[in-house]
TrEMBL record:
Pfam families: Glycos_transf_1 (PF00534). This is Glycosyltransferase family 4 protein. Gene3D superfamilies: Glycogen Phosphorylase B. The lineage of its organism: Bacteria, Pseudomonadati, Bacteroidota, Bacteroidia, Bacteroidales. Residues 33-190 form the Glycosyl transferase family domain. InterPro entries: Glyco_trans_1 (IPR001296).
Length: 213
């Protein structure tokens, strides 16, 4: 997009900012921890391909022995019913208050946001990524789009090589074998996000940008 804009006007001033959120707001939301560990995906029925892939990867992985799978899904009720039939043991939640949703993010063992190798996914950077890092989340994702520019596998996220069941299941198996590493990854995820996805981080640069217009 930047290169296309420069083709129209090579002198135009541009500032690039990733998805951001108010970390101070997130810090004040209490994490309501549940008795047993769970993995969480949040999205709409329009992403059913991703939903089914996550379910299959979870069922293929040993992580199912120690953690349940939950999804917050909104959208087409027919599709939601089909997902329930496909994975009847999975808890599906809907229409949560935002603070309750963030509390669930904070309580999760890991949070799914796998991007596909498509123009649509490569071009976008979901806002949930900054929300997940603000919640000290272990982000389970893929190596597409902007992900490699911000995240490192096993350092501040779990990054699958490809968008498929085997690659995601491999990351979940690593999580199963290395549960003692989750605290470290959660901390690094939060610190990364507070540096690059935090609203206040861009205050000075945006102010300077506006002055130069």
């Amino acid at each position: 997009m930047v290169s296309k804009t420069k083709e129209v006007n090579k002198f135009i001033k541009i500032i690039q900012i990733p998805p951001i959120c108010d970390y101070d707001y997130f810090d004040h939301i209490i994490c309501e921890k549940e008795a047993s560990p769970y993995l969480l995906f949040c999205g709409y029925t329009s992403y059913s391909e991703i939903i089914y892939m996550i379910i299959d990867a979870y069922n293929k992985s040993r992580i199912k022995e120690v953690a349940s799978l939950k999804m917050v899904i909104n959208g087409n009720p027919v599709v939601i019913s089909e997902i329930r039939r496909y994975c009847p043991k999975m808890e599906i939640l809907q229409n949560l208050k935002y603070t309750d949703l963030i509390s669930m993010f904070k309580g999760a063992l890991a949070l799914f946001i796998p991007l596909r190798n498509t123009i649509q996914d490569i071009a976008r950077f979901p806002n949930k990524i900054c929300e997940y890092t603000a919640c000290h989340g272990v982000v389970v994702t893929t190596r597409y789009g902007e992900i490699p520019y911000y995240f490192e596998d096993k350092i501040n996220a779990l990054i699958a090589d490809d968008f498929n069941v085997a690659s995601i299941a491999e990351q979940l198996d690593w999580l199963y074998d290395n549960m003692d590493q989750t605290a470290r990854i959660k901390k690094n995820s939060y610190l990364l996000g507070r540096r690059v996805f935090n609203l206040i981080s861009y205050k000075d640069s945006v102010t300077e940008f506006l002055k130069e217009l």
